[in-house]
Amino acid sequence: MKVIVDLCIIPIGVGVSLSPYIAACEKILSEAQLKTQLHANGTNIEGEWEEVFAAIKRCHEVIHEMGAPRITTIVRCGTRVDRDQSLEDKIRSVQARLTKE
Amino acid sequence: MKVIVDLCIIPIGVGVSLSPYIAACEKILSEAQLKTQLHANGTNIEGEWEEVFAAIKRCHEVIHEMGAPRITTIVRCGTRVDRDQSLEDKIRSVQARLTKE
Amino acid sequence: MKVIVDLCIIPIGVGVSLSPYIAACEKILSEAQLKTQLHANGTNIEGEWEEVFAAIKRCHEVIHEMGAPRITTIVRCGTRVDRDQSLEDKIRSVQARLTKE
Amino acid sequence: MKVIVDLCIIPIGVGVSLSPYIAACEKILSEAQLKTQLHANGTNIEGEWEEVFAAIKRCHEVIHEMGAPRITTIVRCGTRVDRDQSLEDKIRSVQARLTKE
Predict the structure, then answer these.
(1) Is B101 exposed, middle or buried (0-12, 13-18, 19+ CB in 10 A)?
(2) What Å distances lie between residue C48 and C33, C34, C54, D61, D68, CA to CA?
(3) pLDDT tens-digit profile of B40-58?
(4) Tell me, what's the ipTM?
(5) How far apart are CA D37 and CA C5, in angstroms?
(6) What is the pTM of this model?
(7) 3-state class of A17 per DSSP?
């Protein structure tokens, strides 16, 4: 089952600078050969359910190893069986509407 | 790795009455022998990472089988390595603060 | 416009013990005379849009005053125009399904 | 108080094609002269708290007027008092870490 995910990981108890932890996650997602798009508030991911959630678990493990005692993660995940849709398709379908008007 | 999750599943394309789908998920979580607490906007879950996310995947599969072409799910998940914490602990720690004052 | 909200506030840069901040928010919501239900991963709120979001803004202000340099908040909010629905109605509609089967 | 928001609006009860509703929200945010960045799973917004949440309320009103009986919206919002940070800063801080390694 293919899934499209928006991932936002918040390490807690390591101060206010979270970019080292987010960068570590980007590397994990990249090594897992998942399609990703970093944005200002998270990372969009496209892949198979098992692989995506295995990578998210790995992110938690690595961030704990980096010293974060606590992590809260927000995952918004979408599946659909009516048709195949990519990260690019999702943006294009909105932009097409905006252009038409 | 133990995880505490807030799960909110939104079937899309099946009208406005979502309770049959939420009830089906409650049964899946219960059959998976996970500790759960239903609340007005979702379900809190406590369990091992693998088991919790296998159950969430099963929820997606079953809701699609029930006829929903599309699903968006919001998972907030927390892990911590500094101490063990249950669903009840989380509520108690806030209530203890409120009582003290 | 009435809104039902699930509020999860995460102060960042103040260590791992977040309950003093959550308790402060509970007091703000209570003083705003909003209907609330604390649960393990957040607080459910029922009220008028303007009042609910004014209270959430006040939570951010107070948590910053308490010393948190950074806050991330997750708000899931629902509105509907087909019928009136309370926090209790939402739980009851799922529980009714579970009992019926 | 400045806020950075990730907005994900899910109209319920209008079928599976949600892009007309998302496009309508993009127009509302643009007319409100907020800085926005559309991504595959939502829209990032940067602005003053009052203006951002007034625009989000307007999105709910317009989507209901367009015929959606029910809406669930997920807002992740961040404020910080330690320093000013833009949408671009947030991406750059992660990318700088990735390049350095």
Answers:
(1) exposed
(2) 11, 9, 10, 13, 19
(3) 999 999 999 999 999 999 9
(4) 0.95
(5) 25
(6) 0.97
(7) coil
SS3 content of chain D, % helix, strand, coil (to 5): 45, 35, 25
| Amino acid letter, residue B66 | M
Above 70 in pLDDT, residue A101? no
Give strand ranges (E) for D1-94.
Answer: 2-12, 35-39, 42-48, 70-80
Q: Evaluate whether D70 touches C93 at the Cβ level (below 8 Å).
A: no
- Rounded Cα distance between B79 and A61, Å, is 9
Size of interface A-C (CB pairs under 8 A): 19
Residues in Cβ contact with D27 at an 8 Å cutoff, skipping those fewer than 6 apart: A98, A101
Q: What DSSP string describes A51-82?
A: HHHHHHHHHHHHHHHTT-SEEEEEEEEEEESS
Which amino acid does the sequence have at A12? I
Task: Tell me which residue of A53, A52, A5 sits closest to A33, measured CA to CA.
Answer: A52
pLDDT for residue A57 is more than 80 = yes
Residues in chain D: 101
Q: What tokens were used for A22?
A: 């987010």
Beta strands in chain B (DSSP E): 2-12, 35-39, 42-48, 70-80
- Rounded to whole angstroms, the maximal C-alpha distance in chain D is 50
Q: How many helices (H) and strands (E) would you count in chain C?
A: 3, 4
Instruction: Point out the residue among C10, C69, C70 whose CB comes nearest to the CB of A72.
Output: C10
Binary contact (A39, D91; C-beta < 8 A): yes
Name every chain B residue with its beta carbon within 8 A of the beta carbon of A73.
75-78
State the Rg of chain A over Cα.
15
pLDDT on residue D59? 98
Q: Please compute the mean of the pLDDT values over residues A93-101 and round it to a whole number.
A: 88
Structural Rg of chain B based on CA atoms: 15
Residues on chain C touching B6 (C-beta within 8 angstroms): 6, 8, 40-42
Q: What residues in chain C have their Cβ under 8 A from chain B's Cβ atoms?
A: 4-6, 8, 16-17, 19-20, 22-23, 26-27, 37-42, 44, 74, 76, 78, 80, 82, 87-88, 90-91, 93-98, 101
If interface means Cβ-Cβ distance under 8 Å, which residues of chain C face chain A? Answer: 10, 12-13, 15-16, 18, 69-70, 72, 74
